[in-house]
Amino acid sequence: MIALRTWPEGPAAVAAAALHALNGATGDPAAPWAQQTAQRVVQLAAFGLGLDEIRARTAEAWEDVLGAQDVLGAQDVLFEEDDEELGGSPDLSERWRHAEWQRLLELVTAGGAPLYEPGLDPQVTAWTEQRREQRQQVQAAEEAARAERAARAKAAWQERVDELQLELALDAATGRRVRAWAQRYGLSPAAIVHQLVQHATDGPGSGLAVDEFTPGPHEASGPACPADPE
Asked: One digit per residue, pLDDT tens: the chain, 230 residues?
């Protein structure tokens, strides 16, 4: 709770500043999530408090650390390192809160505003900037991934557009040769013609040339429309 008497501008100013504090309080982005939560909780609890009150709350937080150590010592409870992400041991959680109260005490002792505000806290400002940069990096990576998917989809669509579908009628002699090749290589006559055309290139003169190759199975063409880039 915020003691209204500590704020010289009155209750209306407290309400406005409290809303600003809720939006401004934040923790170290590099710390475990539970530690960030502890830091934010302490900042909100310290909002509107002066030096003496923050000093008293810092002392209380240290008493909580000692109390948590006594409880753990009596119960002989073990906590895994992974518990840090889930909130840590009671002792660790109390230490996080005490460390943040100690930081705020040093900040207020150093001078500046007579009452603590997260919006005027240089460290909170730095953490907020780090979060903004992280969000920008994530957004940039997402936009780059979307652009890449769109480019791949466009290329696939263009490939389908450039495809040419033909129905050919071959004379009897050519048809016999094509069917013989198809039987020899275990392919369909259409696949033989397809691969012959695929291997045809411009010859050294004005004609066409097909280098020797061994026909083989190949995948059928895919759908004629691009996938959704999203």
From this structure: 334 334 444 555 455 555 555 557 889 999 998 899 999 999 999 999 999 999 999 999 999 888 877 665 545 444 444 444 444 555 688 999 999 999 999 999 998 678 998 988 999 999 999 999 999 999 999 999 999 999 999 888 888 877 777 788 889 999 899 999 999 999 888 888 888 888 888 888 788 888 888 898 864 443 333 444 44
- Shortest CA distance to 98 belongs to which of 131, 119, 68? 68
Closest CA to 102 of 138, 142, 56: 56
User: What residue type is assigned to position 66 of the chain?
Assistant: L
The structure tokens listed for 104 are: 């705020």
Measure the CA–CA gap between 98 and 96, rounded to whole angstroms: 5
